[in-house]
Design goal:
Blueprint (H helix, E strand, L loop, with lengths): L3 E5 L4 E5 L35 H17 L14 H8 L4 H4 L2 H14 L3 H22 L10 H16 L4
Antiparallel strand pairs: 1-2
Helix pairs in contact: 1-5, 2-5, 5-6
Length: about 170
């Protein structure tokens, strides 16, 4: 049985092939060369490299970008060499508020109105924190594994951003 599955993102074409079943008496187990969800799978997996922590970091970076932009990596707006990573990268640092999920900004404005705080004073800090988070997402989803952040550094940066945003521990 020769069944192949291929897919592509804006950078690479991936081909996943099931191994040939040569004997009818073989156990009916299957394995494939790469496992993951289109858009989230690290690019090096499509080139036959083994799973690694850096591949997980890539997936985390894409997820972070998706959470804050509300754009899936498979969105129809992403074609050719234009993808979620490049979309966010092009907006950093000055146009972050244009690409971030509007619900995040709306929720922040509603919270400011409820507490009677000025939203304009907090919007600068919010924009800086969002830019920092998106920069982490872009770095984590870099094409080359060696250009990605170490997950421990990601955790430390995210904690620092949280503390800056909340104004604690400074």
């Amino acid at each position: 049985m020769d069944s192949n599955l291929s897919f592509s993102n804006s950078r690479e074409t991936f081909k996943i092939r099931e191994p040939d079943q040569t004997k009818a008496t073989c156990p009916q187990t299957r394995s494939i060369g790469a496992i993951g969800t289109i858009g989230y799978i690290a690019l090096e997996y499509g080139m036959g490299r083994a799973a690694s922590t850096q591949g997980d970091v890539y997936s985390f970076g894409i997820l972070l970008l998706e959470m804050f932009t509300r754009k899936k990596p498979t969105n129809s707006m992403f074609r050719d060499n234009f993808n979620l990573h490049s979309y966010v990268e092009m907006a950093l640092p000055d146009r972050v508020l244009e690409i971030v999920d509007p619900l995040i900004l709306e929720q922040r404005n509603n919270e400011s109105n409820r507490t009677g705080q000025s939203s304009s004073g907090n919007s600068g800090r919010l924009g800086e924190c969002l830019a920092s988070i998106l920069r982490i997402g872009v770095t984590c989803s870099a094409q080359l594994p060696r250009e990605r952040m170490d997950i421990e550094a990601v955790l430390m940066e995210l904690h620092l951003i949280r503390n800056v945003f909340l104004g604690v521990g400074l």
